[in-house]
Model the fold of this input.
Amino acid sequence: MDFELNKTQKDIQKAVRDFTKGEFDKDLALELEKNHEFPKKIWQKAGEIGLIGVHFPEEYSGQGLGSLEDILVIEELCRGDSTIGSAVALSSFASELVLHYGTDEMKENFLPQVAEGKMLSAGAFTEPDHGSDITFMNTTAVKDGDEWVVNGVKTFITNGGLAGFYSVMCQTDPDAKPTYRGISLILVEADREGVSTMDVGNKMGIHMMSTTEVALKDVRVPLSNLIGEEGKGFYHVLHFFDESRIQVAAQALGIAQGAYDRAMDYVKKREQFGKKIAQFQVTQHKLADMATKLELSRLITYKAAWNFDQGRIDPKLTSMAKMYAARSAVEIADEAIQLLGGYGYMTEYEVERFYRDAKITEIYEGTKEIQKNTIASAIIGKLK
Done:
């Protein structure tokens, strides 16, 4: 059992760290945050130097690496800045569905553009009336000649309105029992007639990322836009969640580390009652708790990624990683605000933004309650 990163992994870590130090600027982050603007130039540069889609094969402009290398990139991006980092890290969201299940033509058409920072991708799963329940879709896709006709509404879609394409969960067999066996995944290009988006409104955090409703009205796409097998869309998405939940865990880990870094820097410099805040035992205990949560989050997140790279699917482990890392990120960012006191509440000192950005990791890709359901189901097993 070796807990040491190899040279390639350490080089990736350093490259991303150097990138964030050179490209992430606090004043720019505050401006983009205020304007709810996607960090387009930084995203494009990240694509140009190969920081997006490192887990894609080389023929699709990736580096042929694995989930562990992918999450090292995500962690460092979000450590550098919780909002810019999250926006860049999730620019390729759900592209793995095309990577794992798409046709060769799909892969050639879309993956290089995603990896090179030329196109955003999006997964369209959640519906207004279903929330976390993806076992039945109101969105339908019906065959008409050599085309699918797609109708429905999706909501809370990350990168909506900016993405070049959507991987859409559709009910293709409404009579299937159970209903999830009638769900298929269909790739819908954003410029298809009948596709429209609307921003969901102001939200607590991740202000640089678009979150929209996506409406599909009589959208026609070729039958060849089917991703994977017909009627297997639910299973394809579950497999994707085992990868994406590790990515969200890494996002949470990076945000937590970034908040911790800023709090540590502050308490080492700030003086109260004639000595550094870091010299007070209460501060030291807070830092000890934060560091412990960070270490445990990193261990379980890295293990989940390593396990995925071994070709093993373990929903229990990926759910544990996401649940624990996300919860720790919220707690660590909250404690960082407390350590900075009044300054922690001020936008200029960043940790309040890290706190707001951390919270979403407990919600998307399955709420913490959904993760607990998955974990409990695995550890209890089938009851006789």
User: Anything to note?
Assistant: The chain has three domains: 7-115, 120-231, 235-380. The mean pLDDT is 95. Residues 235-380 form a domain with the Butyryl-CoA Dehydrogenase, subunit A; domain 3 fold (CATH 1.20.140.10). DSSP finds twelve helices and ten strands in the chain.
